[in-house]
Amino acid sequence: MKGLKYIFIIVVLITAWACVKDEPVPIPTHGIGSPLSRKVFVINEGNYSVGNAALSLYSPNDQSVVEDYYRYQNNAGLGDVFQSMYAFAGKYYLVVNNSNKIVVCDTAIKKIGQISNLLSPRYFLPINENKAYVSDLYANQIHVIDLKNQIKISSISCKGWTEQMVYANGKVFVCGPNSQYVWVIDAVSDKKMDSIQVGTNAYNMVCDHLENIWILAAGDKTKSIAPQLMQVSSSNQRIIKQFSLGMNDEPSHLNLNQSKDSLYFLNKGVYVMATNATGLPTVPLIAADNRNFYGLGIRAADNTIYLSDALDYVQKSNIYVYDAKGRQLNRFKAGINANGFYFE
User: Fold this and answer.
1) Number of structural domains, the chain?
2) Which one of 14, 15, 20, 192 is at 20 to 30 Å from 261 when CA atoms are compared?
3) Which CATH number is 192's domain given?
4) Per-residue confidence band for 81, with pLDDT thresholds at 50, 70 and 90
5) Does 158 map to a domain?
6) How far apart are CA 287 and CA 60, in angstroms?
7) Per residue in 18-53, pLDDT tens?
8) Contact 192, 156 (CB under 8 A)
9) Residue 290 gets which letter from DSSP?
10) What tens digit of pLDDT does each residue of 275-330 get?
11) Could you tell me which residues come within 8 angstroms of residue 280 by beta carbon, excluding any fewer than 6 positions away?
12) 226 belongs to a structural domain
C-alpha cells in the first residue's frame, strides 16, 4: 500500500528532516476566514516518526491556501502520520496514526477533545450520534467509540490489519488487507456476522448509488497474485462482478463521483469506470506523466478531481485540480505526503 511505503525510509533521511526548522505558518487570506462550507481539506501524512503531519486548507473560490491550517488554528502541530479525517454531527475527527489518537475539532478546526487508547488508528466511521468504529493497523480489532464521552468502550475482534469501512443496509463492511477477507459486522450488536473472500491486500472500499459495495484489492506481485476489483451486494454479501487487473498494475484510492455511479481510481494515472461497466477502462482520464500520484479525491459539488504528487516523499506535495473532463484547473502546494482529501 502506498500509504506505508515511506515508513522504511532510511534513518539518515528522517533525521535530516527532523532537524529542519519549521517554516512560519502562512497567514490566511480573506477566503480562508469565511465559513468552511466551500473548502477542501488536504490530508498530509508527513514523514513517519518525525511528527510533521499537517492539515492544509484550500478555497476553490479564490484559490487561497493555508498549508498547515491546524497549526494556525491551534498553535500546535497535529502529530505523527495524519491518516484520514471525517466530519460528523458538527465535529471533525482527525485520525493520527502513529500518534495513536483521534483529534476532535470544532467546525473551525480548533481542538476540543481527543480519543486515545488506540494502537494505530486508520479510519473513523460513525454509526449513530453515540457510536463510531475505528479501524487499526496493528490491534487485530475494530475499536468501538463512545462519541459523547470520546472514549473507547469496547472492540470487535478482526484478525490482522483493518482498513477502510463503509456502512450499508445496517451493516459495516471492513477491509482486512492481510486476511484476504472483508468482514461484515452487525452495527447494532457489534458482532461479526459474515466474511467475504475478496483477495489479497484489499484496502479500498466505496458504496455506490445502489448500495452495492466496491472493493479494490491490490494483490501481491511477489506471489503472482493480480489486483482485483469487485462489486458485492450489501444485502446478501454475494459477489456481483469481479475484474482482474494486470500483474504489474498498482491500483489504489478508489473513489466515487457525485451521483455514485462512476468509479475513479489511481493506477499510476487516473482511471474512470461506470458502475454498470462490463470491463475495465484501458485509457487513463489523466496520465501520470512521470508524476508520483499519492492521493485522489472527487469533490461531489462539481466532480472536480484532486490529485496529490508526493514527489520524493520528503518535499511538500504538489496538488493538481482538474475538471470532470480531465482538464487542469489549478496547482498548489500542500504538506508532505498528501494522501487524500476531505470536501465540504
Assistant:
1) 1
2) 192
3) 2.130.10.10
4) very high
5) yes
6) 23
7) 333 334 333 333 333 444 457 999 999 999 999 999
8) yes
9) T
10) 999 999 999 999 999 999 999 999 999 999 999 999 999 999 999 999 999 999 99
11) 229, 243, 245, 271, 273
12) no
